[in-house]
Amino acid sequence: MLNLKKLRATPDRPQQIDESYESFAHESFSLEGRVIVRGEAVYRQNAIWVRLKIEATAVQACSRCLAPVVSAVRLDELLEFRPLHTVENPLATEVYFYDFEEPTLDLQSYVIGLIANSLAVKPLCRPDCKGLCPQCGQDLNVTTCDCVREAPGDPRFKVLEKLL
Ligand SMILES: [Zn+2]
Ligand SMILES: [Zn+2]
Fold this sequence. Notes:
The chain is built from three helices and eight strands. The chain has two domains: 2-129, no CATH class; 130-164, no CATH class. The protein has 164 residues and is an alpha+beta fold. It has helices spanning 4-9, 108-118, 155-163; strands at residues 2-3, 15-21, 24-25, 30-44, 47-61, 68-83, 96-98, 104-105. The strands form two sheets. Strands 2, 3, 4, 5, 6 and 7 form a six-stranded mixed sheet that branches.
């Protein structure tokens, strides 16, 4: 939580950030243990510059077999917050916005967003994960099954296979 009142009262003077959050579950990942956030914020000409060093342990489900995939998240980010009304075309820039009227700024949702962006879209428990059988659902990394799987090849080769 940034104290915006205090930041604005002391322009150009950095304010230390040192906070941590409880573990929690997000839509596509969960965070184990505590999320540690350190850094500093400084107010300069209506903008707030926030340097964030984030440490967290993220757990995702393997996109093929659903086994847990654990990754250590280490991020070092610089965010620029500008008051909403000062940006003519918000979509044209990569800045964040803050409400000039609010006395504080809660960093947690931004931290979670940065972590979410840093994670793999299709995580794998290992590069050669065989995944689950689409028919019987068994984990093909630990067992084999007798289900017949359609080879995704060219249908013309299937005709050829029948002839041979
Ligand atoms: Zn897997
Ligand atoms: Zn099967």
